[in-house]
Amino acid sequence: MKTAAMPYVVYLSEVEFSAVRSQGPGGQNVNKVSSAIHLRFDIGRSSLAPTVKEKLLHWPDQRITKDGVIVIKAQSSRSQDGNKAEALARLQELIAQASVVLPVRRPTKPTFASKRRRLEGKLLRSGIKLNRGKVEV
Q: Is the pLDDT of residue 124 over 90?
């Protein structure tokens, strides 16, 4: 069970965009227009909460560099504006995932009835296995 997290706002002043050429098929448009977007977000210099920063820095994700910079490439749209919106949405989703706080699990003891059911199952199973021996003629 996950608890709801407060959504963090990503300020555009903390995000750096750069336009690059898209990869893959696309005809002449892909050769002429730099419509793909590289988004760079420095975790250390951001205004995120320290716990979220720490979680993001230790996140096992290839989009996060060793220097603590998130790099997201968006190229599904033919326009720069569409790709910027997609990259920001993916960044927001990544930060939302990191800001989720899981509740602390408190271990409990098994009940008397569950212990009894487990032992009855073991007894039944051992009886089945016991009868699998060689047949004496």
A: yes
**DSSP letters of 41-74?**
EESTTS-S-HHHHHHHHT---TTB-TTSEEEEEE
CB 55 within 8 A of CB 98: yes
Output the CA–CA distances (angstroms, integers) from residue 50 to 54, 61, 90, in the order listed: 6, 19, 21
Tell me the Ramachandran region of residue 122: left when phi exceeds 0, alpha when psi lies from -120 to 50, beta otherwise. Answer: alpha
Tell whether the torsion through CA atoms of 51, 59, 94 and 96 is positive or negative.
negative
> The whole model's pTM is what?
0.67
Q: Which pLDDT score is estimated for 91? A: 92
Print burial letters for 68-86: b (CB count within 10 Å at least 16), e (below 16).
eebebebbebeebeebbeb
Phi and psi of 40, rounded to 5°? -120, 130
